[in-house]
Amino acid sequence: MKLQTSDRTALWLLLGATALMLLSGLGARELWGAETRWANIALQMLQSGDYFDPYLKGGPYYDKPLPSYWLITATAWLTGGLGNWSLRLPSVISAWLSVWLVYSLGEQLFRKGTGLVAGWMLATTFYFVFWARVATADILTVCGVLAAVWWYWRGPDDTRFGRYLGFFLLLSLTSLFKGLIGFILPGLLLLPHVLQDGRWKRHLNLRMCLALLIAGGFYMTPFILSHFYGAPTYGESGLGLVLRENVVRFFQPFDNIGPIYTYLIYLPVYTLPWTPVWIIALWVAVRRWSSVEPNTRWLIWGLGLLMLFFTASGSRRSYYVLPLVPFAQLLGAWWITRHNVVSRGWKIGFGAATLLLLAVLGVLYPWTNGGGGVIRFGESVKLEASKRAPLKDWRMVMVEVDNKVPMYLQTGGAPFYYVQENQDFPRTGDSAALMKWLDTTSGQHWDPQRTIIVAHYRNGDALPLHYLSVDHQVITTTPTNGERMFHGREDQSVAFIPQS
């Protein structure tokens, strides 16, 4: 797709504004929700050097395929350490690419200018930007689905081996981020077009079968490496978890059970503020179905199949609807450009939405997360510890600590040692008893003067391991600006640093 100078300028303006919205204040917010799991697992990989066995708080946790964690460890290596930036950067890059892919699809499938409108609509969709700044695999999946659809539409009737191989490798890579939906979602989206005019018949050939076989081998590679190079005592199977999370959960959900109308509510919510646009577009297209362009009919059929698939699954959560969001906005952009309603008002609307998101993400988020919290807690612990000895000389013991704290306590020393709540560690006594218990349980010697104990507890509960305060400096988390204004902290962390 060759671009004229004005088109190229408009595209770079879109991508530049998107980058600003995605990066502003990215490192200021504390870890949130599932981010804590990704951070803890990636941190243990970096500390132990074992990249084939994911652990959460010291225990096996093969909840997602390995590449989603590998991306985080790779960005941590590039940026010099694991932090909020490196943790969230894979999602940010995927979101930025998603905006470009939506732009490319719009320009490819519809009239000139549709892609630009669709790109601005997606880039200024609040929940898309929100999840793009969260360290999970959801936006990686969105990007992978868009990439596979984009690749297909570059040559839907092309039967060369390279075309098949690129398509199936994209499906495999997407499935390695979150699960088998990386194969299923693009397949459902493209199915109406493949079935149209018997197109599927020309794609049933040996070249496609060979490409699918190679892509299947690519998908299996991390699991094979994990089996042969992982710890023999790990105890969890990656493929077993894939079956449980993708097949068993679909037919016999064991968590995340929502009502059958979940996505009828959350698709409109997750496409704000542009929800009315794609709803009007859908209404117009259905009313004039026979005169609507074939590509628009394909888009509506594809969205319908995705909605049916997600609704049929017994496991439902609001953010599962994210892969539908770019295609809903693409439908809205089709209506805007088809009726020549792209005007100065739309440009003002996109600009206002961009400034609002920048104000929320670049100003409000950093302020509400400042003044305290676990980020400040980690800085205080490392500062006080460094007064006594170099940080790399310290060892950390985490007693049932919340996942979000360890990342902020990296010292460059030995890996953290995790003590679970159900273990029989001394809850009363003195520091000598605790150190003796650690020596016995871990099978290694702990230097009382170079060991920091960190524990997690609910606000209002008694201080855990309070007896350590006799000969340790006590540091606790303090409320952030936002918590002081709206509510207190629900959870606390406490660090015990041995006195000289």
UniProtKB/TrEMBL annotation:
Transmembrane segments: 126-153, 165-192, 204-225, 263-286, 298-314, 320-336, 348-367
Enzyme Commission identifier(s): 2.4.-.-
Places the protein is found: Cell membrane
Top-level EC class: transferase
The keyword Cell membrane appears for this protein: yes
Keyword annotations: Cell membrane, Glycosyltransferase, Membrane, Transferase, Transmembrane, Transmembrane helix
Span of domain Glycosyltransferase RgtA/B/C/D-like: 63-215
GO MF annotations, alphabetized: glycosyltransferase activity
Signal peptide: none
Topology term for the membrane: Multi-pass membrane protein
Protein origin, superkingdom: Bacteria
Protein name: Glycosyltransferase family 39 protein
Native species: Pseudomonas nunensis
